[in-house]
Amino acid sequence: MPATPLPAPRRLLTVHSSTGEQVILDETTPYPTNDEHLKAFVGYIQPDAIGKPNKALEWAENRPVGKISHDDQTSLRWVDIPPQYKGAQHYTNTFDYVIVTHGELELILPDGQTKIVKVGDAVVQAANIHAWNNNTDEWARFVGVVVPSEPATVNGKTLDRPPFNGYLAQF
């Protein structure tokens, strides 16, 4: 798959240092994934549930460990989806706050419902099964903030059980 033609993501972090200086880190997101099928960048990983300003500079150096899905940490990510891409149905135990910044995507639910998501649209995914398709001839990108959540349950069963038999993505 060719490299994405979209501009490199850029992360800016503003924080006060421990000595009271205002610090701005301004850099292109330094952590692309190595997956050849999914072009993604992780811009920030916060391991604690509550933000801690005194840890922000330290956390800015956190790197993803072989994946972009962090069910146990809050993370910021960019995902670039190539033209004519057909995504696999999956879920994560996270709330995903997604905003499309380039192109157009199709959100597909396991019961066949679909929604076209365009630039500026926001999607909140509450630990549900879904897939993303790019049915166009242009690259698409979404930016997401991903927050850990409890597993979703239906009639007392988690999504990896019948009737859903969902795939818990750990990518």
From TrEMBL:
It comes from the Eukaryota. It holds the Pfam family Cupin_2. Gene3D superfamilies: Jelly Rolls (2.60.120.10). Residues 78-144 form the Cupin type-2 domain. SUPFAM superfamilies: RmlC-like cupins. This is Cupin type-2 domain-containing protein. It comes from Kwoniella shivajii.
